[in-house]
């Protein structure tokens, strides 16, 4: 006989989420680490009440809450924290994020897009206006003259991989199961949004108890289809100068060992996208580091001449392909292994739709006896050594000038070399992601966490907290600790640093290196290269000329950080920076290290391109000159449309 329990929709939701597990490779984990939330009238008495009840019942029973609650400062930032956690956990654990009606919910839109683009699971629970419309229009309700059933939350639809709205309690089981299906699907996952009208959250219903039984969702490893594999192998076996492009899918699938085995057996060099960096450690003989617009000269030289490009778990975003100029061999063919068919077919590739680890293992077996040959191995080694020398020269660790202000390369070098191999670097936007992609020497598969799918300013601190919380949880499960280094520019810091308060409240340790260069150096340098003269990119006072060309603004970001309750260290020389890094590592709590850098010192060149269109006509000579350069690059852009089999 079916038994039921009378619960509110919110209480049923919390109870259901607390009982969801995932299993991959025989290892079972609870899917939801907890719920991040900010309350308002849309969720305080619904989901808020349910989370409170969960916490108090757990305390009384002497166990952990089913869905531990964490208070954030900004809804967008909470989604960043959740997404970073999921990435650090290889998508085997996630968070729910609850927000109040209206602005609380729409603040999560940016986070939703970021999650979906990066294929990282997060369950968004935006509150919605009354289903009954009994008191409408409500505070924070959007009224439209053309429609009665659209709310601001409909804006989540294009950003979510699954969207639902629970108008009635009876709909809840279907909505929750639909959400779980997508959250745990390796090809489909991303932002999953289930909207809860505020009256429905508080409404009671007799829910079937089976809804709350423990459920284990198997995370599959789809196998490559035999015929597809055979086609891929045929193309790879014909290759004289192949190159692997490793993307984030290698990490999600924990396919690093399989990649290493394939690279070692065949000698095929491996370039890495931002999300794929660390798929091989930097000092592995086949690891040629970053590829594309912010790539190493080694990976980009090999890309230029590659006759077969083997994509593994990559979206082939424009930075990876240098806006489709990176692969210059006129006959280049693509073989792409991806769990998502959307990515597998890009560039007319011979597509192998499969889990990265399964696909790599199958390829390695089928490629038995294939080797790129001594000449290609030697070329890889020589290009790699040249790039390593470039990194050493800009890190300049042995230069001895400890009393001068470090430039950004040296800041990265100091953090790289004084952090432990297991420590994690976190970044998202500005000039540092590109510089890190080129320079950072990853020693641990989990050591590099740069969000470059959405490259969202403001991700850094919030994301760093997610990574640190994941590391804390790993320690509870017996892993060694990791420190998390958040590298953030002044612009990104000003966009969203307030989660530092969350780090303090939750006792989560992060080390923030705040790089003050008085503006948007990355966009400034881009602007200059495009003929736009660094317009609007500097933090300078407006003068009587009407322009932003006055003194530097009297902004003290170190004082700002200190006011949020974290320990702050101001540094002005390399010696002070290095001491601060070591002190921060030794400290059990968070530190913000403030360092000034010169915005005009760039990282070494990638000898590559990134397409940003320049005005076709202009009265400015700088723009006209930039347009000529743009057209030269544009002429080298390829479509990669040629069908593979006919090549
Ligand atoms: C939310 C968001 N808005 C705008 C941009 C475009 N953008 C990319 S980098 C950047 C400037 C970043 O400045 P800062 O953090 O100081 O880093 P810097 O460029 O100085 O290294 C801007 C405005 C973005 N990536 N994200
Ligand atoms: Mg800056």
The strand order across the widest sheet is: 5-4-6-7-9-8
Average pLDDT figure? 97
Discrete helix count: 24
Provide the gyration radius in Å: 26 Å
Question: Strand fraction band?
Answer: 15-25%
How does the helix and strand content classify structurally?
alpha/beta
Number of strands: 23
Shape: globular
The low-confidence runs, each spanning 5 or more residues with pLDDT under 50, are none
Q: Helicity level, as a percent range? A: 25-40%
Gap between N and C termini: 64 Å
Descriptive overview:
- This protein has 647 residues and is of the alpha/beta class.
- The strands form five sheets. A six-stranded parallel beta sheet has the order 5-4-6-7-9-8, with helices on both faces. Strands 14-13-12-15-16-17 form a six-stranded parallel beta sheet, with helices on both faces. The chain has a six-stranded parallel beta sheet with strand order 19-18-20-21-23-22, sandwiched between helices.
- Helix 6 links the parallel strand 8 (162-165) and strand 9 (191-197).
- The structure holds thiamine diphosphate (TPP) and magnesium ion.
- Magnesium ion binds at residues 430, 489-491, 517, 519-521.
